[in-house]
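Below is how a single chain appears once it has passed through the pipeline. First comes the sequence as given, then the structure the pipeline wrote out for it. We keep one example in the README because the format questions we get most often are answered faster by looking than by reading.
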Amino acid sequence: MKRKPSELVANRNKELLLLIESIRGDHPFWGYRRVWATIRFIHNLQVNQKRIYRLMRLHGLTIRRHERIRAIRTPRPKPISTRPNQTWGIDMTKVSTNSGYAYLVIVMDWYTKKIVGHHIGNRCLAADWLCALDVALNKMFPFGVRDMEGERLKLVSDNGCQPTSQVFMKSCHILGIEQIFTSYNNPKGNADTERMIRTIKEELIWVNQVG
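Resulting structure:
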């Protein structure tokens, strides 16, 4: 016979479950690993992965295989930049070359509309995103990332596997960068960065492609 959790543990689990439900409401396709990474590195709570998985499974919040879930448009106001190095956007696109696809990751300052960092590789890994972010940080913050006017640097991205990976989220946490994820099915969430990628394709890539 299993022993019932103490009242203190039950209350902690209740608070944690409310946080899990809030995260899953914003990100309905996330499994327990991404939920755990968000709680650990965004909310700064020391919690075990097994505990998150246990609570999610117990309350039917895990993602079932072959389960079809339709994303609902959940518009969320995007951050408004009032100065440089306040809000950056990061995104990736692939480009067809003679030797296969190349993957371009850019980091753009939303205030100046300037590309502050980029990386090109033949794979689309979280490490490639970190390389682009590293270039931007070394260029714009040569002495290290610091709070500016009491506000952390914000980094806006979609919900892809690279920016939501544990290694990427942990790196942002260590660097003091606040990650902001766009809501599902909301094309305006990272529109500034996506528009820059479109400009790069229209004015630099497509006009130079042969055939």
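The domain at 87-208 is CATH 3.30.420.10 (Nucleotidyltransferase; domain 5).

See the next section for the split statistics.
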